[in-house]
Amino acid sequence: MRRLTTVLAGACAAALFAVMTVALGSPAVAASLVEVTSFGNNPGNMRMHVYVPDSRPASPAIVVAMHGCGGSGPGFYQGSEFASLADRYGFIVIYPTATQSAGFGNCFDTWSDAAKQRGGGSDPVSILSMIDYAERTYQGDPDRVYATGSSSGGMMTQHMLAVHPDVFKAGASFMGVPFNCFAGASDYPPGSSRCTGGSMDRTPQQWGDAVRQAYPGYSGPRPRVQLWHGTGDTLVPYSLLRESIEQWTNVFGLSQTPTSTDTPQAGWNRSRYANASGTVQVEAYSIQGAGHVLPQSGMARYAVEFFGLTGSQTDTTPPTTPGTPVASGVTATTATLTWTASTDQGGSGLAGYNVYREQGATDPQLGQSTTASITLTGLSAGTQYQVYVRARDGAGNLSGNSGLVTFTTTAGGGDTTPPTAPTGLTASGTTTTGTSLTWTASTDDTGVTGYDILRAPGATGGTFAQVGTSTTTSFTDTGLSAGTTYRYQVRARDAAGNVSPVSGTVQITTQGGTGGACSATPTVQSQWGNGYVIQPLTVTNTSTSTITSWTVTFTLPAGHTLTGSWNATVTTSGQTVTARSVGHNGTLAPGAGTTSFGFQASRPSGDTAVPSGYTCA
User: Fold this and answer.
1) Of 109, 93, 92, nearest in space to 101 by CA
2) What number does CATH give the domain 518-616?
3) Residue 153 in 3-state DSSP?
4) Rg, Å, the chain Cα set
5) Of 2.60.40.3880, 2.60.40.10, 3.40.50.300, 1.20.1060.10, which CATH number belongs to 423-509?
6) Is the separation of the CB atoms in 102 and 111 below 8 Å?
7) Which class in CATH covers the domain with range 4-307?
8) Active-site residues: which are they?
9) Are 66 and 55 in contact (CB under 8 A)?
10) Residues sharing a CB contact under 8 Å with residue 339, sequence separation 6 or more, in sequence order
């Protein structure tokens, strides 16, 4: 019980929007989710579910994992990886279910005066009661209590860390907002909120003062903070990640300039803010192109590692040193390097490699790669380069320097003319995991040396990234996801390193799994002046055979825009929306097996139309 019984009141909450959790695979089934109906003082009228792994230490850590608006504790249990990680690392997970709404539905209260005051009541007090229950009943460690959550749950995470820094050791907020972003219930509904309206901008000092005023006079240690946000998030604008960074770095007395940056996985840009002793107090992830759909696969593991629950408090062991690079295909402006791969030794996983020019160079880093090779571009003609490689792991540790490779780019000559763009790009032989591309060759005054193959996710949006090269006019792409849409382009390169314009685009959709007939039934959960939430959108197997994947399509009315989704992989083309099953909900038993997903959309004010034409296959 210790201090929790004296702080059962309070502040905190995580407010707003939809349960935009992408389902990441079913949790392990060694234990089961249990509902606790009498856990103590419950002014928020919340429900409590708890997952206690069968294998755990005598005094396990406690993680409070909170859903987004419109969701539930059991839903977040099914749609996130925290329970499976609990089986692996032996910590307890509490899954609260919020019942506050402020007109939006099942959101954690971060807007009321009661929630912002220690001892004030509302959801924070209910959550503290749940923690106290887990400490008493399962001998949970009161010195290792952590908070995490998505959207509204991410907001509540930052809220709880601000109001109850004496309870929590660290937190991981997915798509949240800074503490005290909401002025009150009137500032809460989407579209009209000053907090999430896209123009919130306070100084670091103002944000930091808000936290300090939540617990005046507190001088103890502050919980470390991990922040996640997608650059394409418009529901809870990406700009609020910067505001959260400013708040928490100010609380810790840190510079606004990160002490280190890296890319632990493709599209994940991480910034770290450490104190003078090197301890990372604030960590922020920008997920390139992602909308309101976090956490995605693997992100929960990074949160649990940040908490120090994966076997050691911090991975400080660097990867092994990579082999000396070998240069090939050197032109006036490009060179390809390959090297012997490193291995990770500290448990956080090999994340990739940094490629550097010799010491003393004005711009020493030439590039990054997630594999043991890289094609350097933009080099200077007729120039000698000395290059080495360092491996990095998921914790940001860097290996020693590889040996140096020395090469000299060819003279620039007079060839500055790029090849013509490839034409006639087509795809054939598409399976569940691959497709074959062919195109008509480009022409060049000195000769085409190869082609770069570019791929983007979905029917629209996304970024084209290089996924391979070919010295012929064909390429087979493998390792794709079933029932998923991709777009491809091709560009040519010549011996001087000139690159052609890209070809036209070809779009493919990989085959889905086996299945039969199904139906899709929408429910309008909530509406407001310029938006609405469809939840649940129930998918039912109406056939006599098991379905292993499903695809639902529907049409948005003119002027409506999808702003978020959860429990499905969603793409749009014009007003047509395609939603496909994800790992944990694709298999439906014959004869009325069901699952569900949901989405949120914006619309012109006064427009009361909703989507139509739902089909399921």
Assistant:
1) 109
2) 2.60.40.290
3) helix
4) 26
5) 2.60.40.10
6) yes
7) alpha beta
8) 151
9) no
10) 322, 323, 324, 325, 326, 353, 372, 373, 389, 402
Give the position of tokens 């590692």.
305
Could you tell me which residues come within 8 angstroms of residue 41 by beta carbon, excluding any fewer than 6 positions away?
Answer: 8, 125, 126, 129
Q: What is the pLDDT of residues 416-433, one digit of tens each?
A: 788 999 999 998 887 767
Can you give the three-state secondary structure of 74-141, one letter per residue? Answer: HHHHHHCCHHHHHHHHCCEEEEEECCCCCCCCCCCCCCCCCCECCCCCHHHHHHHHHHHHHHHHHCCC
Q: How is domain 326-408 classified at the CATH fold level?
A: Immunoglobulin-like (2.60.40)
**Each residue of 386-418: pLDDT tens digit?**
999 988 776 667 788 899 999 988 876 667 788
Contact (Cβ atoms closer than 8 angstroms) between residue 307 and residue 61: yes
Amino acid at 206: Q
CATH 2.60.40.10 boundaries in the chain = 326-408, 423-509
- Copy the structure tokens of residue 120: 């004030």
Amino acid (1-letter code) at residue 99: T
Are the C-beta atoms of 149 and 67 separated by less than 8 Å?
Answer: yes
For residue 242, what pLDDT is reported?
Answer: 92
| Per-residue pLDDT, 609 | 82
